[in-house]
Amino acid sequence: MLPAARWEAVTDGLSGAGVWRSSRFVLKILSRTQLDRPLHAEALRLRWAASRLPMPTVVAYDVDDEREYLAMTRIPGIPLHHPDALLHPERVTDLLARALRELHAQPVRDCPFNASLNVRLREARERVAAGMIDETDFDSERSGWTAQQVWTELLRTRPGGEDLVLTHGDACLPNLLLDGEYIAGFVDVGRLGIADRHADIALAHRSLTFNIGPDAAEQFLDIYGRELVKPEKLTYYRLLDELF
């Protein structure tokens, strides 16, 4: 399926997949678990979004007893956390906010992927029960917590309602590609689906704080639309992300 090419390893991701890229294609390889098949989920979402959103095109998907394989086209550009992109932090902040507003404005009536809290909390419970949580990777404010403590806190503080839109699901700087002055597309869309907009806003806000600083994160909220943002939901969805 893939032509002979010079391939290079991509080592700056956190998905756990082996990732290689050539000038035209990207190949992901991931060990299977009994609980889920993340690359299959990503392939389904890429195929659904092909005519709707700027994302890679699936070339092939395959699976065997031990691994999943996903080959897709490569989008030009550099991730928003790349040092060259961060030479212009105000542009990165502005583009991220506007890209998420456009994504969240997409119609959801024909989206088959449900990422609402009922679904995500069920998945989180299964992951905790299966011992899949890396407790050493929790954010600093939860250093020393157990996965069970996070789960209990999620149940205790669950918001009363959801502002449902089409979400990326992991809207961090590495997952948006910059090509010149514009966002070229979204990558790593295995969690794309209908969810509360804060599922994206919370992770984007955290990513900007880490990569640029708290002032940029607050400016992001202003550009996105602070009237749409509930601070308690930002806290909640960062907490939920600890279990994924």
TrEMBL record:
Q: Does the keyword ATP-binding apply?
A: yes
Alphabetic keyword roster: Antibiotic resistance, ATP-binding, Kinase, Magnesium, Metal-binding, Nucleotide-binding, Transferase
Where Mg(2+) binds, per the record, is at N175, D188
Task: Please give the Gene Ontology molecular function terms for this protein.
Answer: ATP binding; kinase activity; metal ion binding; phosphotransferase activity, alcohol group as acceptor
Report the record's Gene Ontology biological process terms.
response to antibiotic
Where is the catalytic site? D170 (proton acceptor)
Its protein name is Aminoglycoside 3'-phosphotransferase
Q: Which organism is it from?
A: Deinococcus ruber
